[in-house]
Design brief:
It is built from five helices and 38 strands. By secondary structure, it is mainly beta. It has one domain: TonB-dependent receptor, beta-barrel domain (Maltoporin, Chain A), CATH 2.40.170.20. The N terminus is likely disordered.
Length: about 700
């Protein structure tokens, strides 16, 4: 660990704040330092469901172009989180990654919260390779409920994949790195005729993993193999119609022996475990130009499966193991109509439909040594359940510029969802009970913002937005005492004040934001004491919290061969305002879990006409707690990554490394054990383009 960073964190944070509030004289000096080379490209995004310049959107958005991700060697959602201010993550297993935005979203969940959209579709699947053939990734911080609906109360990741070009294009990338890890991605696409085009992408990765098991004598505790595929077929028979047929496929399987008592990468479990899943997800997008505006229809279906087996005592003894399986079948339909009524008014209206069935099975097995934990040997408890979710929403957006220097944006989403639960419990083969519940929730989710346009390249904005996490059941538990009435939705309201500027003749970009998030009705675990009975822990809407902080991003093109970037974030305050009856007692005032106190990152990409390429980036992650009780803390650590290579017209080769300082840090905590992150990784890569 680099504990020295803890002593300097306030002064480093002050540096980023000073950059955000730089005086005109300081900006002028920066402009002179940049010289007369290069210009930053204009990045168009669809974060608010219409195409706009990133700098015109009145919210905090980090954007990563596909080629930028390739330059930095980023091939996972975690890699993006590590390079985004005020976005942290924690891992549940080899594939399940939860994102935490500005301290919000890091508490435990009953069921998974999906806040990653791929081509306007949310896929309820833990292992989607979102970066396969990605054209752009947009990370939105703050409550996004007005446009995106449920489970985006903290933020959302919007992924746009590549579509067919009007010319033939093909590429393939092969990598080999530490721990016998092999990776391959390839894509091919182009026109079929004047009206049709296609694009196919394939990804494959496998590896032995970096965990060793002392009990079993193995060194592949988190081995993995995954195959991903994506296809697009575009048909545009007229100038006003465009149809896009998409299909995403995925299959993964691997071990699940990655939690160690006391940390590190050596485990002692007597059960190697497994972790697997699959996905089939077709969609159809139709865009038609009408006299009134542009009509978009997005029809999507997905069938996904996920399961695991894990040793829950994490020792060489055969005490307890858990097995889980879930299957989502999801259908969504979205309609959007957008237009421009005048030069100063843009509008969008839409409707959304959700039909989703979730089937789950949980089995807790007590082995031959279960007596050590006070449980009967060779005993099983299990549950089988189904949740049927039906929902609909109406939403709209208006962007109005009443004066040249003022832009106003208003959004509203009216969202309704009903869930039905059928649950059955078993102790061995004997039923322990069956339960059925039915509940519906309505949410009004507004968002307003105002921007003061200082010039074509600079603006100051303020916004207020509301989002919610859907109500839910505690259906995955095997104890019928805790499968009760559902918890209601939890809500987060984000207040944000920001600045966006492109300076020095578009060679320097500076974005900064201050924010405050009010988090209400948290779905948390509380203790219910019944006289004469053992304590029961229930999920209830029994906590309140808040967070506040600052984030800054810089991007510069000082020379045509160089691109520089930097970012920083600091949480002023992030704690539970109210949590009186948690499993650990009254923890009101404790820090929110899975949120880094501060993050500093920066890097550079150098590309010369001779073919020489070099990229380096570093991230200092501040300390964080993994649990609500603030007992398990990850200290500050620094990640350094680098790539060097030669790029030719059709073939390129690179040498790269991740975590070059070989930092020892944890990704998550469970029942007193931790999952450690990968150690130092080195690899080679070859890319071929046709």
């Amino acid at each position: 660990m680099n504990s020295r960073w803890g002593d300097w964190k306030l002064s480093l944070t002050a540096t980023w704040v000073a950059a955000a509030l730089a005086s005109p004289a300081q900006v002028s000096a920066a402009q002179e330092a940049l010289g007369e080379y290069g210009e930053l490209e204009v990045i168009t995004i669809t974060a608010d469901k219409i195409e706009r310049d990133k700098q015109d959107v009145a919210s905090s958005v980090s954007v990563f172009e596909g080629y930028t991700l390739e330059d930095m060697g980023v091939d996972s959602l975690e890699g993006i989180a590590n390079r985004t201010p005020n976005v942290s993550f924690y891992r549940a297993d080899s594939h399940t990654t939860y994102l935490v935005y500005r301290g919000i979203g890091g508490t435990t969940n009953m069921n998974k919260v999906w806040n990653v959209n791929v081509d306007d579709v949310t896929l309820p699947y833990v292992a989607t390779d979102i970066l396969l053939d990605a054209a752009r990734v947009e990370v939105l911080r703050g409550s996004q409920g007005a446009l995106y609906g449920r489970n985006t109360h903290a933020g959302v990741v919007n992924v746009v994949t590549r579509s067919p070009d009007d010319y033939f294009d093909a590429n393939g990338v092969v990598s080999y790195e530490s721990y016998n890890t092999m990776k391959f991605t390839g894509a091919v696409g182009g026109p079929i005729d004047d009206d049709m085009g296609y694009r196919f992408a394939l990804g494959y990765r496998s590896g032995d993993g970096y965990f060793k098991n002392r009990t079993l004598g193995t060194d592949d505790g988190n081995d993995h193999q995954q195959v991903s595929a994506r296809g697009k077929f575009v048909y545009a028979p007229t100038d006003i119609d465009k149809l896009t047929f998409s299909l995403t496929l995925d299959r993964f399987d691997g071990g699940f022996d990655s939690y160690a008592i006391g940390g590190g990468t050596t485990t002692e479990s007597n059960e190697p475990g497994y972790n697997d899943g699959s996905l089939v997800a077709p969609s159809v997008t139709w865009v038609r130009q009408l006299s009134l505006g542009k009509l978009t229809s997005i029809t999507a279906y997905s069938d996904s499966n996920y399961g695991f087996l894990q040793d829950w005592d994490f020792t060489a003894m055969d005490i307890m193991a858990a097995e889980y399986d879930e299957n989502f079948q999801t259908f969504t339909q979205e309609f959007r109509l957008e237009g421009q009524s005048a030069d100063d008014l843009n509008w969008l209206v839409g409707a959304f439909l959700l039909v989703e069935d979730l089937d789950t099975e949980t089995m807790v097995r007590f082995g031959a040594d279960a007596g050590a934990a006070g449980m009967p040997a060779d005993f099983e408890m299990s549950q089988r359940s189904t949740i049927k979710s039906r929902g609909g929403a109406l939403f709209g957006q208006v962007v109005y510029q009443p004066w040249q220097a003022v832009e106003l944006t208003g959004r509203l989403r009216l969202d309704y969802e009903r869930k039905e639960l059928d649950w059955q419990g078993f102790a061995g083969p004997a039923p322990t009970g069956s339960k059925s519940f039915d509940e519906g929730w309505f949410a009004a989710l507004p968002s307003v913002s105002a921007a003061w346009i200082l010039s074509d390249e600079q603006r100051i904005y303020g916004s207020i937005s509301r989002g919610y996490k859907a109500g839910d059941f505690n259906n995955v538990q095997v104890d019928p005492a805790v499968v009760t009435e559902p918890v209601d939705p939890e809500y987060a309201t984000t207040y944000e004040l920001g600045y966006k500027g492109t300076l020095a003749d578009r060679r320097l970009e500076l974005n900064a934001a201050l924010f405050y998030v009010d988090w209400q009705d948290l779905q948390v675990e509380t203790q219910l004491n019944v006289p004469g009975a053992a304590p029961v822990f229930l999920k209830q809407n029994a906590a309140e919290a808040h967070s506040s902080g600052i984030e800054v991003e810089l991007r510069a093109q000082p020379h045509e061969d160089w691109e520089l970037f930097a970012g920083g974030s600091y949480l002023f305050d992030y704690e539970f305002d109210k949590y009186p009856n948690s499993v650990s007692g009254d923890i009101s005032g404790n820090l929110l879990p899975n949120a880094n106190e501060f993050v500093l990152n920066g890097g550079a990409v150098y590309r010369h006409d001779s073919g020489l390429f070099f990229a380096v980036d570093a991230t200092v992650n501040g300390s964080r707690f993994f649990d609500e009780a603030n007992q398990f803390e990850q200290k500050t650590y620094t990640l350094v990554n680098a790539r060097i290579g030669y790029e030719g017209e059709s073939m390129s080769a690179y040498l790269y490394g991740r975590n070059l300082l070989d930092e020892d840090y944890a990704l998550s905590m469970f029942n007193g054990t931790t999952m450690s992150a990968e150690p130092a990784i080195v690899g080679v890569q070859v890319k071929v383009e046709l």
